[in-house]
Fold G-patch domain-containing protein.
Amino acid sequence: MSFDDTGSGMPSELDAEDDYLSMAFGDPAATAKETSLQRTTRVKREAAERGRVLSKKELALQAKAAREAALATELDSSNKGAKMMAKMGFKGGALGKTENARTQPIEILMKDDKGGIGMDSEKKRKIRETAAEMEGQQKRKRVDEDEYRQRTRDEREERKAEGQMWSAMKTLERFDTDCANGDDKEDSNAKIENQQNKAISPPLASANVLWRALAKQRLDRERERRMRYDLDQSLTQRADYEDPDADDDDKAALGTDVEELDEEDAELAEFEELKPAVRLEKILEELRRKYHYCFWCKFRYPDESMEDCPGLTEDEHG
């Protein structure tokens, strides 16, 4: 309250209004008194809250919150354990002889499941085994793909070598047949390309093993053809009958002079066990050595030097 300058002691007119610029605050308004009904409701609610049985999940959450709060609280001198350590001479700092020793207590690792102590290690082991197995499967998959590609390439190369082998075999057969018939000439390149296969007059066993398989195939086909012919024509002549007066031409006409195949041709069987590429190499070597003929050049050279031939393999011929 302020007074005027007259000293009359009467309150000033400003006292009638509140001084909003002053730092004085009025007393807070008195709170309303709780009624008996409100008090009864509050007591019942608090009692029900205290008496409510918490679920396992709520209890676990409360325990986890309390544990985290306790672990987050640093130890101070008021802690009972700290007081005991202080009595034994501990003055703070690292918990060890060295300076870089542990300064905080060992962390607590809580288990949230019902597994035993070694369950985590077992899970980690299974995870590592699963990862290793998956990695092994990936490696095997890559190996299988590589093996498949390599096997495909090998099969393709083998089919190619086999086709070239049969072609070279026919060429060598022509040379040997012409030489046996006394028709081996230096200018027989055109004949080699255009002449058709001739029938093999020598016995099968005397044929060169490098092309004996061709002769055997022709004999097999000829036997099958004549057997089909005999069945189709229903010849009246018995198969086991042999005319003593029939000459070679009569036997050829009747189909009774077919050479019996030798099933025990060990030399041919041994040669056919080789891979097509190896058989091809042997046939080409025979052509070059015996007739100075290059299968890749398709040309017969005048002498064994074969001067203009690029080489022995197909790759060398481009």
